[in-house]
Amino acid sequence: MTLIDLANPTKFLNLTARLLPWLAGATAVLLLIGLYESATAPDDYQQGATVKIMFIHVPNAWLSMLVWGVMSVAALGTLVWRHPLADVAAKAAAPIGAAFTFLALVTGSLWGRPMWGTYWEWDARLTSVLILFLMYLGLMALWRAVEDPSRAARAAAVLTLVGAINLPIIKFSVDWWNTLHQPASVFRMGGPTLDRAFLIPLLVMAVAFSLLFVTLLLAAMRNEILRRRVRALQMMQVAQAGRRSA
Amino acid sequence: MNAMSLGPYAWFIVTSYLLVTVVVLILIAWIAIDYRRQKQRLHELDALGVARRSGRSAVDIG
After folding, report:
1. How many CA atoms lie within 13 A of B4 on its CB side?
2. Which residue of A has its CA nearest to B7?
3. Which residues of A touch B (CB under 8 A)?
4. CB 3.0-4.6 Å disulfide test: which of A44, A157, A197, A208 passes with A30?
5. Distances (CA, A) of B14 to A51, A230, B7
6. Could you tell me which of A70, A102, A79 has the C-alpha nearest to residue A218?
7. How many CB atoms neighbour CB A77 within 10 A?
8. Does residue B45 contact residue A237 with C-beta atoms inside 8 Å?
9. What is the DSSP string of A61-103?
10. Cβ-based contacts of B45 with chain A (< 8 Å)
11. With an 8 Å Cβ cutoff, are A216 and B23 in contact?
12. Where are the domains of chain B?
């Protein structure tokens, strides 16, 4: 099956039916390994056991941005290539991205209270991630508010691309401004500053959460395709009823 | 995870992990329920005799 074949929703549904059980299984296994690695990781010499929050906070924070990145590529697919599955992918990804962003914010807050002495600080990193969360909610509201799917798709694609400006702001906020949030310690010039004892559980959890995202995205895309099929059939039903009564 | 070894901030750690678990389970349940709902609607349309333009049954997912 070539990439162009996936533009056909029916072929895409066939592919997801085959892939989803394997993806779900791999996600479950990796999550279990990641949880075991996280539970058995040593305490940090400064943060103590609260370092364990990092193993769930950081993957969710990475995914909050990655999902918007995926939606931005899908937005290009909608506006430039008019790919039939691009809007389906973006619409399916938005609630999942919102959930990851919510978890990044709340677990960060729960980590911040014992380490910083506060649940929240209006610094550049925290505020820009909160804006990302609000943009996810706004985008979901837009899809619900506009009845015509093709108009909603175009409006959502434009908003997604405009919102992508926030991604480098989030990433570099800790370098551009004086923030309470620590600077990057994994993806940085010169390599990670984290000890292997923390880096390995973190990377396992990051891969596990990424697989979870792919699994949920494919399942949510399948639902969205079926929802559009239901809508098309209901419109056909109304048209048939109209012809009969005419 | 042994709560005894989590130190004075065990509440923050356990709450974080529980919250992530609950939200992920809600996401999975929401997607699973949505799938069942869409298939149910397709079955209802199929029972009413509404067919796709291709002539295939409404419930033919493939």
Report:
1. 0
2. A49
3. 10, 13-14, 17, 39, 43, 48-50, 52-53, 56-57, 60, 95-96, 99, 102-103, 106-107, 110-111, 113-114, 212, 216, 219-220, 222-223, 226-227, 229-230, 232-234, 236-237, 240
4. A208
5. 12, 42, 11
6. A70
7. 20
8. yes
9. HHHHHHHHHHHHHHHHIIIII--TTHHHHHHHHHHHHHHHHHH
10. 230, 233-234, 237
11. no
12. 30-62
Contacts of A75 (CB under 8 A, 6+ apart): A86, A90, A156, A157, A158, A160, A161
- How far B1 CA lies from chain A's nearest CA (Å)? 5
How many domains does one find in chain A? Answer: 1
Question: What span, in angstroms and rounded, lies between the C-alpha atoms of A89 and B16?
Answer: 29
pLDDT at position B62 over 70: no
In a domain, A20, yes or no: yes
Inside any domain, residue A9: no
Chain segment A109-156, per-residue pLDDT in tens: 999 999 999 999 999 999 999 999 999 999 999 999 998 888 999 999
A34 found inside a domain: yes
Range of the domain at A175: 15-180+201-245
**Residue numbers in B near A114 (CB within 8 A):** 8-9, 12
User: Which residue, B10, B31, B16, is CA-closest to A35?
Assistant: B16
Q: Which of A98, A83, A208, A191 is nearest to A142 (CA)?
A: A98
What's the mean pLDDT in A29-50?
A: 93
Output the pLDDT for position B3: 46
Whether A188 maps to a domain, the answer reads no
